[in-house]
Amino acid sequence: MTKNNVILRAVTEADLPIFYEQQLVPEATQMAAFPSRTREAFMAHWSKIMVNKNGIIKTILFDGHVAGNILSWEQSDKWEVGYWLGKEFWGKGIATKALAEFLDIVKIRPLFAHVVKHNIGSQRVLQKCGFVIAGEDKFAEENGMKIEELILKLV
Ligand SMILES: CC(C)(COP(=O)(O)OP(=O)(O)OC[C@H]1O[C@@H](n2cnc3c(N)ncnc32)[C@H](O)[C@@H]1OP(=O)(O)O)[C@@H](O)C(=O)NCCC(=O)NCCS
């Protein structure tokens, strides 16, 4: 169940405060165009997904440290994948290894990912794991600004 020094394991309660801190980082929220949650909202959201038997969530360990999380969930009859790493873990190939490992465990296909157009790193991660661009979408941010995203698909 390992790709070199990257290991996926079940999420534990002790991981949640680390994930919470990781999703507060402004560069990350800007990169993903996804606003950070307050502690209360974050814990409520994760309490829900921890018991959701239809979702698949994993903690990404790098050299034994909690580097981030990777998950898959069903939305509008489609299975999506998403991931988030703490900033200190970026640029080491961890997301690519974690996604490759996740795809060995999660055999659901097709699998989709929505990525904002400016998130080149995430697009690279997906493409290196076999995802291809399958379409485009748009959503409105809280300030009303339209954000364009790509839909990537793995068949
Ligand atoms: C996006 C993210 C997951 C990338 O993780 P990572 O472990 O640094 O990615 P990898 O090291 O596996 O990089 C894969 C490729 O993307 C490139 N890449 C990574 N970050 C990049 C960036 N910011 N700009 C351009 N390219 C980038 C790498 O150079 C590598 O390309 P190469 O193999 O052709 O050289 C990480 O930055 C992150 O968690 N960001 C915040 C949350 C987020 O955006 N989640 C995804 C939402 S769709």
Protein traits:
155 residues; binds coenzyme A; alpha+beta; 8-stranded mixed β-sheet; Aminopeptidase
**Domain tally:** 1
Shape by Cα distribution: globular
What is the highest CATH level, the class?
Alpha Beta
- Sheet bearing the most strands, described? 8 strands, mixed
Beta-strand residue fraction: 35-45%
Distance between the termini: 22 Å
Question: Rg to the nearest angstrom?
Answer: 15 Å
Bound molecules: coenzyme A
CATH architecture classification: 3-Layer(aba) Sandwich
Write the CATH homologous superfamily: Gcn5-related N-acetyltransferase (GNAT)
Output the helix-strand order: EEHHHEEEHEHEE
Count of discrete alpha- or pi-helical segments spanning 4 or more residues: 5
Structure classification: alpha+beta
Low-confidence stretches: none
The CATH topology name reads Aminopeptidase
* Number of strand segments: 8
Fraction in helix? 25-40%
* Strand numbers in spatial order across the main sheet: 1-2-3-4-5-6-8-7
